[in-house]
Amino acid sequence: MSNELVNAIADMREEDALRIVREMVESGSDPMTILDAAREAMAVVGQRYEEGTYFLPELMLAGEMLGQITEIVKPALAKAPEVTRYGKVVIGTVQGDIHDIGKNIVTFMLDVNGFDVLDLGVDVPPQKFVEAIRDFQPQVVGLSGFLTLAFDAMKETVDAIKEAGLRDGVKIMIGGGQVTEEVKTYTGADAYGRDAMAGVSLAKQWVGAK
Fold first, then answer.
1. How many CB atoms lie within 10 A of CB 188?
2. How does pLDDT run across 53-62, given as a tens digit for each residue?
3. Element (H, E) at 61
4. 115 and 83 in contact (C-beta within 8 Å)?
5. Backbone angle region of 123, left / alpha / beta, with phi > 0 → left and psi within -120 to 50 → alpha
6. pLDDT at 113 over 80
7. How far apart are CA 174 and CA 143, in angstroms?
8. Is the confidence at residue 183, as pLDDT, over 70?
9. Would you state the torsion angle of the CA atoms of residues 81, 85, 89, 90, taken in this order, to the nearest 10 degrees?
10. Which residue, 32, 28, 33, 1, is CA-closest to 17?
11. Which domains are delineated in the chain?
């Protein structure tokens, strides 16, 4: 059934996807199997987006499906054996930007891959990131931004983390629609993730997880 689920999500068949998830939960399937299928489907969606087959509306629908699937699976996850936790990540969309689809997908992927994620939401001022790093003590910080105006906000956030004396204790990744290697250099981040799985790979690498 997990293959059916992958195809239903990837092909944007929302009703089928949610029905399959409910059936899998009711039949006692491992919730991680469901989340793995969702993760696999999102990789397909991302690929189709890159190829120009899918556009922003499909990404938004995929994000909505993920949210609904997570809600259905949550009660079963609470009973499941604890996933090995590798570390902590603070993530948010930087000040001046309110796009959250990409961020939500990255948050979901990090969570199912064994990270405790503190999601600060959208339009997050630099100081809020600084406070979250102090309180939550993550190893990784993710700055998300879809608009080009987010680049300055990313730089200001990295600078604020430096000024607070916290820069050496965290690795910072950035991501979003227009982000490139040049933007990474400009903002002072450690790396940029081209997609959600790249973000997960970076986080795992930085905390020494396989």
1. 16
2. 998 889 889 8
3. helix 56-79
4. no
5. left
6. yes
7. 5
8. yes
9. 40
10. 1
11. 2-79 (1.10.1240.10), 87-207 (3.40.50.280)
Q: Which residue shows structure tokens 């689920």?
A: 5
The C-alpha atoms of residue 37 and residue 79 are separated, in whole angstroms, by 19
Tell me which amino acid residue 22 is. R
Q: Which residues pair with 155 in a beta bridge?
A: none
Q: How many secondary structure helices (H) and strands (E) does the chain include?
A: 9, 5
Q: Return the closest-CA partner of residue 22 out of 9, 31, 13, 12.
A: 31
- pTM equals 0.75
pLDDT for 203 equals 96
pLDDT tens-digit map of 82-101? 667 899 999 999 999 988 87
* Spatial distance between the Cα atoms of 27 and 20, rounded to a whole number of angstroms: 10
Average pLDDT rounded to a whole number, residues 125-145 = 97
- What confidence score (pLDDT) does residue 83 get? 67
The CA distance from 115 to 110, in Å, is 5
